[in-house]
Amino acid sequence: MRNLFSPSRAALLLFFLAAALLPLALDPRGHLIRVAAMVLLFAAMAQSWNIVGGLANQISLGHAAFFGLGAYTSTLLFLKLGVTPWIGMGVGAVVAGGAAALLSIPTFRLKGHYFALATLAFAEVMRVIANSLGDVTGGPVGLSIPFMGSQPALFAFRSVASYYWIILGLLVAVCAVFHLLASGAIGYRLRAVRENEAAAEVAGVDTFRVKLTASVISAALTAVCGTVFAQFTFFFDPDSIFSLSGISVRMAMIAIVGGLGTLGGPLVGALFLIPLEEVANAVLSSQAAGLSQFAFGVILIGAILIQPRGLMAYWLRTPWAKTRRAAATGA
Question: Of 40, 96, 146, 261, which alpha carbon lies 20 to 30 A from 46's?
């Protein structure tokens, strides 16, 4: 019973409850609800990345590839064959999961920054391919999804609130998957790999298998986020959907700033970084080109220097969190 009503779970439930009620207090067609939806979407993306980057310490800079595969697969199935994005979402997840499995065969032998560079190269290859296949992908012009009225079966809604609640449901699902992985046997094996891969192998852990499982699940969830992003924005192009800074680095930084490897880290990181970036753009973008991004970068560096373990470290210092950990360890 104490586990069921722990402070961490209570805080998480309160967050999701407040998020579910937020559209009722905002203009359904205003800018703020779109920003709130993007906060939740990037939190889901960062949580998906957190499975590989947080639990297994495999710092990927190529997750934009899986994000773009999800967006392109579902959108092309809809535009070319009339397949509803609800089904295309699943197909995109399978395609991205298969791509992650193929990518894992050569890259899992690499360590540290070599692995990060290999994943970055994969995302860049996908961007070049998407730009080159103009007849299929639209090339640099990108793809536009026509709006034909509110049709829930085709993932089309007039109200931004409808997309918001779908994104919130996606975030809940991704967090549930992360929690099941982190608290299960695979989570313990991934943490063993993160701490000392050689020792984990000696202890009998099939390191390649557990990392492959985490990578496939992470890629599939990221692809689902890509589908939702495409339907929410109605337009994307290769340079934006496969972007290093806009997608790959951003989802990694959200998880790192919030708290790497923690359930609440991506939520806290997204709540901090996405609104901060919006404020910086609104206040400084008109004064000088690039000034808003410079200010955002300075604040980001400061946050990392002040608290390298992420903002969740402040939560772990609270008396109730310390009491919870002591009870769990029997101290």
Answer: 146
